[in-house]
Design brief:
0% strand
């Protein structure tokens, strides 16, 4: 019988039956507090399940993801402090993206082998979760143990992949002195618009994901109730 940690390494469709069996075993052994903790464990979403399997089976690739994320954050901080350059930033972005893409491709193989539909939405959620784990300490802590229940999303480092920081250049005679200030003002406004749009997208995704999670939990509850009903009917027939 798997323990609570091992539940998250099982094939996707085995989580609920194995969890319920473990709860019954713990209750039968008088370990009711542990049984309650296990009963509260939520079945991972499909995307979260795929990420859990990556953590458990693709250790080298996951280590590269974390290292690439650390490198990107370091270079980004250097750029903001005026120590970095656009070439280093582009290289760090490319390395992090390559690590995410390699693991996302591996996840597609895992999902396909389990018979799950390879929808663009699920693949995007896997990629977003990996990106979050690369760049955010809290997300990484959730992903590292391979017990993720829901996919994650990180709202970036103040840049988009491949974007280079805008560096202020010395004025030339061909340009009036006021023009650089005008350009910088336009850039700031564009960045604010991007940040607002990014937050709006993030909020919409969260609402969508919560709705999907609620539907999944309702379906799980229905399946469990139907199983209990079938068990009760069978017991009545046996008594009769």
């Amino acid at each position: 019988m798997p323990d609570a940690d091992e539940l998250y390494g099982l094939p996707f469709d085995e989580f609920i039956p194995a969890r319920n069996a473990l709860v019954r075993e713990l209750r039968g052994a008088g370990r009711r507090e542990e049984a309650g903790e296990v009963a509260a464990l939520r079945k991972p979403s499909v995307a979260a399940w795929a990420v859990n399997q990556l953590v458990r089976t693709q250790r080298k690739g996951v280590d590269e993801l974390f290292e690439a994320g650390d490198g990107l954050r370091s270079v980004h901080d250097d750029v903001l402090a005026g120590r970095g350059d656009a070439g280093s930033l582009r290289g760090a972005v490319a390395r992090e993206r390559s690590a995410v893409d390699a693991l996302t491709q591996a996840a597609q193989g895992l999902l396909s082998s389990q018979g799950h539909e390879l929808s663009a939405t699920i693949i995007e959620r896997v990629s977003d979760t990996l990106h979050a784990a690369a760049l955010d300490d809290d997300a990484r802590a959730q992903v590292r143990d391979g017990r993720l229940e829901r996919e994650l999303r990180h709202v970036g480092l103040g840049m988009t992949p491949g974007a280079a920081p805008v560096r202020t250049r010395a004025r030339t005679r061909e340009k009036p002195a006021a023009e650089p200030k005008k350009d910088r003002k336009a850039e700031r406004e564009a960045r604010r618009r991007l940040e607002r749009a990014t937050r709006a997208v993030s909020t919409a995704r969260e609402r969508r994901d919560k709705a999907a999670a609620a539907l999944e939990e309702a379906e799980e509850a229905l399946t469990e109730a139907q199983r209990e009903e079938a068990d009760a009917e069978r017991a009545i027939r046996e008594l009769g």
